[in-house]
From TrEMBL, chain A:
Protein name: Uncharacterized protein
Xref: InterPro entries: DUF5691
Ranges for region Disordered: 13-34
Pfam families, per the entry: DUF5691 (PF18944)
UniProtKB/TrEMBL annotation, chain B:
Name used for this protein in its record: SWIM zinc finger family protein
Superkingdom as given in the UniProt entry: Bacteria
Region (Disordered): 111-136
Annotated organism of origin: Actinomadura physcomitrii
Record keywords: Metal-binding, Zinc, Zinc-finger
Amino acid sequence: MNGWNEHVTAALLGTERRDPPVLPEAPDGGDADKAGRLLDQAALLAVARRAGRLPGRGAAEAIAPAPGEEAPVVPPAAAERLGRILRGEHVEVLPEWLDAAAAHGWRVPARLLPDLLERGRGDRMLRPSIGRAAGRRGVWLALRNTDWAYLVGAGGDPGGGAEVWETGTRNQRAAHLTALRRRDPAAAREALRETWAKEPAPDRAAFLATFRTGLSPDDEEFLESALEDRGKDVRQLAADLLARLPGSAYGERMAARARACLTPRRRTVRGREQTWIMVEPPAAHDEDLARDGVPFHPGGSFAPGGGGRPVGTRAAWLREILARTPLGTWTDLFGLPPMEIVCLPVAGAGASEGRSGRDEHDGDARDVHIGWARAALKQHDAEWARALLKGGVMVDEPGALADLLAVLPAGERDAAAAGLIRWVEGRSELPPILERVPGPWTGDLAAAVVGTLAASAGRPTRRDEHALTQLCRLAERRLDPSAASRLEDLLARRPPGEAARAVPRAVPALLTTLRFRAEMLKELAP
Amino acid sequence: MSGRWDRGRVAALAPDAAAAKAAGGVARPAKWGGTGCDGEAVWGECQGSGASAYRACADLAGPAFRCSCPSRKIPCKHVLGLLLLWSDGAVAGGPRPGWAAEWIEQRREREGKARERKAAGAAKARDPKTVERRERRVEDGLAELDQWLRDQVAHGLAQAEKAPYGLWDDAARRLVDAQAGALSGQVRALAAIPRQPGWPDRLLEEYALLRLLVRAYRRRGELPEGLRDTVRSRVGFTVAQDDVLGHGERVRDRWCVTGSRDTVQDQLTTRRVWLRGRESGRPALVLSFAAPGAVLDSSLAVGTEVDAELAFYPGARPLRALVAERHGPAVPATPGGTSVAGFLDDHAAAVASDPWLERWPATLERVRLARGEGGDLHVIDEAGDALPLRTADPWRLLAVSGGGPVTLAGEWTPEGLRPLTAWQADEGAVPL
């Protein structure tokens, strides 16, 4: 039955201008006028069109199936909770959920992938965690939506084979290089060397960053040549990588500069003879220093450096040089273990005994210790980190000390962090310091945090309440959830006078979140 | 009402995400005192931030909720938290305290009165004089609509593209006056068509089908009974629930809940729940309505199957139904489905008996997703037959299927298939 289009044309023009087409199949319309007849015939055709709909054949091509999954999907209770989190309930625990699931070898159920990938679109920090837990289905899905393209290659699995290096996105190629470096660093280096000159600067930086995996003296020559690169980020990255490389020519150059700045001298002060470290910051900046990754204005050189003055460029150069000098230089030079070296007194070399101002003296010591702390962090030197944390020499720089916690072996970290917290307890720096201590906070550290929380919940001032709110926000994500019951106990056992006052709102919220996390982790345990 | 609800069903009651989150915090035994439940209600007193405790109570039969807190959300976080506790088994059975018993009593009383009022209204509606008056008014209204339709076609539809909404609104308002409510909404919705691509075909289809309805109503005396009921309901005559339960066709089957979709029009939320009979293969539609702030019926959960007897509303192709009696608890199930060709045959038969059919449920077995030439999504079955999909957000369906076969339930409309639920081996039932 045809003629529909003629009816549409007639209807558009109007039956006043165009007679309705003739439709022999139509039953007799009786007394209908032209317009009525057109509508009656159109009704017949419309119903016939709807009822006579045929399936499309060959009009559409089936979508290629996703690769099979290796990881099993999380248990139903965990999946249900993830759904709640993605709908906004305690969304701050999402990274922990993802990491815990990935650590136990689970993956996210496919139905929740779109909501999860949408979260990652607005939150860069979340992306690596998503990549680990989304499974192959996640990558398959991301390949079909440009908004989610960040996931392709982000999970460490670039997908596909060796051709990814030729055809992939920057993320995919970097993931491919990282995987290759894990197996065969030399092959990865050669692959990169072939295309190096043709890559744009941001790609060169991304690929050079993969050298963190499997870094060895074999990479030195490549990195040295990258110090001459046109890209600023590439140069900086090469210098940072070289500074981590033991026994490199770069390390030697830095050590030579550093030895010119710090010299041991036997001195007798107030009747006590001992080795002093005499400090002479570099007098000038030169091309070679810049080439080795120390810019004229290193980051932080305008920051307040004590005594109301900024750190200044000379001190900042000194810090950078020390940060890039192999720490072995100092044990060799002083012939002492790190613990004793960090306790040595420090004095400005220019200052004679008489006019050494106290501020300047402290400033020199601070520069040296900060330089060493940065070096211990870069070179992952646990012994130096331990010495700086325990030596009590950097009390003014708890932030730098907190960074060192990451270098300690996992077993020591909690106790050292707990010591640090007790050291700064009650001061406003506490939240920014704890900010730098990665979770999960367990053992001694958890006890110290709980103690601090309970104590500041009892203090009345607004400033305390502000710090407490910040602390709770950190503890929400990082504190071991089993600490909730201890915190509740402490709050319940407050002295009567204190207990009469309401606990700041943040504390019950923290307890709720901790309980939520405890249930969540239980569901995700294998 | 028997048995505790599971967490999911309680969570579905939350009016928004904030309430759901807050409820999680309230759902702790330490916060509650004097909790208890019996077969019909749950109650308890929650220590809030103020001095006095909030009294929360849920009547499970409604369900209806009440709490003495100042929140305007229904149900509020206290009631939700209480129900969560109850769902976890942390609320023991016991006798109702005075305040809870009193409230439930009052509510039941009010409900009883409302029912009486309704019954009185229905009795009035059955009064032959009232019936006759209404029939006449509708007839006049439809004659006017017929004239309006013919005018549109006589002057040409081309003008519709630039016409103001008032053109359809006026016609719709006159239908309200004529007590043909169902038609009025339909006519008002036509205003959106000329703003869409391919509108001349759609508009002519709609006008032609309206004219068909007008003519069918005029000749209602000659129509077979089922078709006459269909025409009457399309025009806006309603059938009372009691009549459906009393005289409607009864079908007992294992009914699988294949999909649910909420739409909001004029502040009224309509929930369409689609069912499919395991033995009969027969589709059914259960409608529920809620004014703002009220709770929609959540007793039929998507992806479950329940042994029940349905009572169908009368019609040429009975589709809308009420759950008359349940014979067992709901259990998770995957519905049986058809091929694309099988579905289209079924649909053709349905349109043949009810030409005004706007949507018809599809349950397709072992279908995969496919892309057409323009990149638009289709479903394709094992025989290679494809149907276009009509959805703005295909991502969940895509993720769940992973390019593999799924059982897909949805609503078929002339514009394509709107997916509602997918069943996949690993994922189970997934509402889309």
